[in-house]
Design brief:
By secondary structure, this protein is mainly alpha-helical. It has nine helices and no strands. The longest helix is centred in the middle third of the chain and has 22 residues. It is flat, with a radius of gyration of 25 Å.
C-alpha cells in the first residue's frame, strides 16, 4: 500500500520515505497502544537522523492510528487475563522446570533442523537424482503422504489401541514442524 500510494500521488522520494516511516509508526502505535514508542522506533531505527518534517508526520500518523484503534477496539486488551487466577503452590513448581527443559530441548532441535535442512535436501536429492530446482517439492511430501490426517473421522478405520489414537494428535504438529523447518531452507 505504501509503495502504491506515492506513485498515485506523484510523491517525491523524500515524501515516499516519510510515508513509509509514518506507516511503520502508525502500525506500531495501533498494535501496542503506544504512539510515542512508534515515533521513537521510527526515529531511531528506520530514519536514522532527526528531521522535523519526519518527526511531525510520524507523530501525527502514530497519534491518529492509536486514536482509531482505541475507537475500534476499545481499551480492553486482546489477550486479557482473568482477574482470579489461582496461585500455584510451591510443590507444583517442578512443572515449570520440566516444561522449561522440554521446551529448551525442542527449541534446540528445531534450530538444528532448520539450519541443517539444506544438507538433508542435498542427501535426498543425490539419492533420488533430483535437480536442486525441485527440492521444494520434497518439503510437501510428508504433508501429502499421510492421507489419514485429512480424511473425515467417520470414514477412518477405528483403532483398537488408544495409545495410537493419542499419538495421532502429535502428527499434525510434527507435520507443521517439518514443513516450517523444510521450507526455511529453500
Amino acid at each position: 500500500m505504501v509503495k502504491v500510494l506515492p506513485n498515485g500521488l506523484k510523491a517525491s522520494p523524500v515524501e515516499e520515505r516519510s510515508l513509509i516511516a509514518s506507516g511503520a509508526a502508525a502500525g506500531l502505535a495501533a498494535a501496542f497502544n503506544a504512539p510515542i514508542a512508534g515515533l521513537l522506533f521510527v526515529v531511531e531505527e528506520v530514519y536514522h537522523h532527526f528531521s522535523r518534517f519526519f518527526w511531525v508526520s510520524t507523530l501525527a500518523a502514530s497519534l491518529v492510528a492509536n486514536f482509531v484503534s482505541l475507537l475500534m477496539f476499545g481499551l480492553t486488551p486482546v489477550l486479557d487475563m482473568p482477574d482470579h487466577i489461582p496461585q500455584m503452590r510451591l510443590d507444583q513448581y517442578w512443572i515449570y522446570l520440566v516444561m522449561g527443559l522440554v521446551l529448551g530441548i525442542s527449541g534446540y532441535l528445531y534450530q538444528k533442523a532448520v539450519l541443517n535442512v539444506g544438507l538433508v535436501y542435498d542427501w535426498i536429492g543425490h539419492r533420488i537424482h533430483l535437480d536442486r530446482a525441485y527440492y521444494p517439492v520434497l518439503a510437501f511430501y510428508p504433508y501429502y503422504s499421510n492421507r489419514s490426517l485429512f480424511t473425515p473421522y467417520s470414514r477412518r478405520r477405528k483403532s483398537v489401541n488408544p495409545l495410537f489414537d493419542g499419538a495421532k494428535l502429535y502428527i499434525p504438529s510434527f507435520t507443521g514442524f517439518s514443513l516450517s523447518s523444510a521450507l526455511y531452507g529453500q
